[in-house]
Amino acid sequence: QGVGPEDLIIAEYPLWWTLPGRHATLTQSLASLGQATDFFPENMPSERFLYPCDWHEARFVILDPMTERWRAEFDPAVREAVLEIRGLWRLVHQTGRLSVYAPRVTAESSDSLFDPVPWDTPAAPVTSVEASP
Predict the structure, then answer these.
(1) 59 in Cβ contact with 106 (< 8 Å)
(2) Smallest Cα–Cα separation from 33: which of 47, 23, 46?
(3) pLDDT by residue (tens digit) across 20-50?
(4) Could you report the per-residue pLDDT of 64-118, keeping only the tens digit for each?
(5) Beta strand 8-10 with 22-24: parallel, antiparallel or unpaired?
(6) How far apart are CA 72 and CA 61, in angstroms?
(7) How far is CA 107 from CA 54, 89, 91, 96, 100, in A?
């Protein structure tokens, strides 16, 4: 059971082109929930987002050093989310400095996302949660 085109993956921009599904950063997700973070003001209008991107509903959250250290250090909303993910979600895969978490409900069926992909396989289309202004 892999990731479908409607599944939400929370990860930083550089990872999006390698991943199937829909994408948002953790800060975009927090902004969609009305929290002020990074470059987003509090109570962003829902029209700003093309699709729901609540990280609580994500199929996977991929944490990288920039999110876990730098963003979490300077942004209390990111820090709280990272602590909740680390504490309540299940670590299902780790490669290098990337940690992939899944909600405990779907963690048992998550391995197929990480099957090796041949180099000649076309990249997944990039889909961003942010609508153009």
Answers:
(1) yes
(2) 46
(3) 999 999 999 999 999 988 788 889 888 889 9
(4) 988 888 888 888 899 999 999 999 999 999 999 999 999 987 545 544 454 443 3
(5) parallel
(6) 15
(7) 18, 8, 8, 20, 10
